[in-house]
Amino acid sequence: MPSTPQAQATSLPVELGKPAALSLRWPVDAVEALFDLPFNDLLYKAQTIHRQHFNANELQLSSLLSIKTGACPEDCKYCPQSARYSTGLEVERLMRVDAIVEAAKKAKANGASRFCMGAAWRSPKDKDLIVVEEAVRQVSALGLETCATLGMLDQAQAQSLKQAGLDYYNHNLDSSEEYYAEVITTRTYQDRLDTLEHVRGAGMNVCSGGIVGMGETRRDRAGLIANLANLPTAPQSVPINNLVQVSGTPLDDVEPIDDFEFIRTIAVARITMPTSYVRLSAGREQMNDQMQALCFMAGANSVFYGEELLTTNNASVEHDQQLMSTLGMVAQKTA
């Protein structure tokens, strides 16, 4: 099989926002060319690469819990948790540690191997970080991988979370840099890159992906994937979200992305980031079994697992277990 641009990459990192250099592993044009491949060729290429790095019939199950819900000051146009939009969402304070741990125990009993904690903050306050860090310690003690998404982090906060034992930190790029201002104005693309740099610098695994179906073009989707793949180290975990339209948000009537285009996005993420977990994230409840099966064939090897994501519904545990059984897939074992 011919080598890919990833295999030919130099070891030099790419600094986004600066002129493209010869060290660029995945120019946007090269990523867009992958999108343009015939569908069967693209899936074959993605599945071949996937099998070089992962068990193609093993699925990593992540459960996601909103530990602090609503009243976020940001203006992300897709998000029902923004205080700027009227979505009927009930605001909830930061959960107690014991309640978080009980939810983690339930997730593990259902087969999850990673537990993700999300809080609707622009960035966490130190007093809240103390609570999150204790939750991380206790969830880790259960034998689960831990992940958190708490907004922007400075260097000291990232180091503190690492010392508490946090395995992964999620901070999505959301879109291409060019399309970003169409979706968010209250923080910059560079703000997001800075947080990812702090996470890497602290020695934590990076979880970073994006959202498709927000009215962006294929070129924007290629730009998002290129930006992720061209980070100094590709994210260890890449969630790909299919926009869930929520009434009251500015994107509640945007034209949905075509199913095959979503599957193509999964395949391109797998090809450009061969060793990353590629996760089917938001929007999976609206996908039929056949679409999910094609996503797995395209290289997705992780899902958010459980009846609810941060504020939106998800496929049921029972349905996921039945689908895995039908496809002959097994859950990645917990520690």
Could you describe the 3D structure shown?
- There is one protein chain.
- The protein has 335 residues and is of the alpha/beta class.
- The protein has ten helices and ten strands.
- Strands 1, 2, 3, 4, 5, 6, 7, 8, 9 and 10 form a ten-stranded parallel sheet that branches.
- The longest helix has 16 residues, at 126-141.
- The chain starts with 27 loop residues before the first helix and ends with a strand.
Nearest-angstrom radius of gyration? Answer: 19 Å
Distance between the termini: 35 Å
Sketch the topology as an H/E string, one letter per element: HHEHEHEHEHEEHEHEHEHE
Strand content: 5-15%
Could you give a short description of this structure?
The chain has 335 residues and is of the alpha/beta class.
